[in-house]
Specification:
Two copies of one chain form a homodimer. Chain A has 283 residues and is of the alpha+beta class. In chain A, 28% of the residues lie in helices and 26% in strands. The first copy, chain A, has helices at residues 21-25, 43-56, 63-76, 147-158, 202-210, 225-230, 258-276; strands at residues 6-8, 28-36, 39-40, 82-89, 106-113, 123-127, 163-167, 173-176, 180-185, 188-191, 217-220, 233-238, 242-249, 252-253. In chain A, strands 6, 7, 8, 9, 10, 11, 12, 13 and 14 form a nine-stranded mixed β-sheet that branches. The longest helix of chain A has 19 residues, at 258-276. The relative contact order of chain A is 0.15. Chains A and B meet through helix 1, strand 4, strand 5 and helix 4 of A and helix 1, strand 4, strand 5 and helix 4 of B.
Chain lengths: 283, 283
């Protein structure tokens, strides 16, 4: 049993060829999920999205290879609850951005321990100087070309904040470096549409589906910074940290709506319990 | 002696940890140059730019480590003339886009044979649907987050073209997926400024410096597609292929200016001969 196993195309531990296009060109996509009690939560959804995103950039990967990597890593890890990161690259190919040959994709699965302490952390947000590029297919995918996210996260850290908000060129809020965005306004639960530069997050979809439990009507529409500042509550979502209340945006206080967040978290936790036999809120 | 040696932090051949941020996040930069007769052409300029670009994204790498990689690969390769690609990543770090710990950067140097057949190939260009993002620092760096370039190169290949032109959001020509852009208009040799999304190419700088030899006055200013179509000549530059005449743009013929290109190529070739003792036009 190992603390942080890494599986690469059947080898555990595995290494990467320095000529792999995932490294040389950021040419690939990834997915992150949590396995509770070694059972991937919403695994089928994550797998479907991952395979779909590889196809969007012209990589064909067999879902069974990804499943094999998940099984290997879940069997080898010593922790019960694990963050699984799956990476699919275009593989090793000759020089050139779009060579005629089609290499075999590389599949990488790594696991790190998950802890309930990751849940629900309050977030101080700044607005990044870097905007999402809606003309780039990569804006709607979890790609290996993530340097904009890295540099925006650096901006946040240097400003003493926890995360950075990306606006699109029209000034509409898109997402943060690691999360989708929601605003509560009256009885509406608003999240930016994918066309504004948001990612199709799995936790985003689960929260939209759970909105009724909190007596909220889900709505996809563009959000301005002014609307975020005036909202009854703003929160972020991702598959590792679930729901995170935003407490500050560029130094200005955001109203808290703890009741709605608690009800939504209760609904999501019930799904985890049903699927994985474990309540993620258990410390 | 090997055909395509790859050096990683002192090991030849070397492998990459799957948790390296260059792979997981496209978190690094690279450089490409040609060594003629095992002597890197414009090596000092390439090294200075590479180290400068690492610093811009917060990576500190010692130039002597890069030189050591170049020496190792040039000594091991069986070809006399080599394309050297140098990659510097932020290294292996804990999960998170901007972790507090500062890992040791990874330095990778790989070599592939260079051939004079790469020089001067005529280029059929299309305009990419993907625009450069001027708010992203990555637009002015040769980063490992190159998926936009990969996808634009795919657009070109699917359209039966050789390369794709990036415009910026204002509609000004910036560069192609692998090259800088020049237009000849009367006695002016025009190239887009870095602020329009162009990269600070080494060959770009050499061509600007050589303009006088072709009785041309170099000028950095924005270029529209209409100006490219009306120009007396359009060509691309990079450090591997030197000068490439553009013959078609989105299916429309571009005027040829072979005389100016021949004179510029003569001037650059003399520099290679002086520095490396070899004329790159020798077949």
């Amino acid at each position: 049993m190992i603390s942080e196993p890494v599986w690469v195309d059947g080898s555990l531990p595995g290494t990467i060829d320095p000529r792999d296009r995932g490294l040389t060109l950021g040419d690939g996509v990834f997915d992150t999920l949590v396995a509770f009690g070694r059972i991937p939560f919403a695994g089928a959804r994550h797998l479907e999205r991952l395979v779909g995103q590889t196809e969007l950039i012209g990589i064909i990967v067999d879902a069974s290879r990804v499943r094999a990597g998940w099984d290997a890593v879940l069997g080898a890890a010593d922790a019960e609850h694990l963050i699984l990161r799956t990476t699919v690259t275009r593989g090793r190919a000759a020089r050139g951005l779009w060579p005629a040959e089609r290499p075999e994709p590389t599949v990488i699965v790594s696991a790190t321990p998950w802890s309930a302490s990751l849940l629900g952390r309050p977030i101080r947000l700044i607005t990044s100087t870097i905007r999402r590029n809606p003309t780039s297919p990569a804006a709607r995918l979890k790609t290996l070309s993530y340097l904009d996210n890295v540099l925006a996260a650096r901006e946040a850290a240097e400003a003493g904040a926890d995360d950075a908000l990306f606006l699109n060129p029209a000034g509409m809020a898109a997402c943060t470096t690691i999360a989708n965005l929601f605003a509560i306004s009256g009885e509406r639960l608003i999240t930016p549409p994918l066309d504004d530069g948001a990612q199709p997050g799995i936790m985003r979809a689960l929260v939209v589906a759970a909105a009724g439990a909190a007596d909220l009507a889900p709505l996809e529409r563009s959000l301005t910074v002014a609307e975020l500042l005036a909202a009854d509550g703003v929160f972020l979502t991702n598959s590792v940290r679930f729901l995170m209340p935003v407490v500050l945006l560029d130094g200005r206080t955001i109203r808290a709506h703890g009741d709605a967040l608690a009800v939504l978290m209760e609904a999501i936790s019930r799904e985890v319990l049903r699927e994985c036999g474990y309540d993620p809120r258990t410390s």
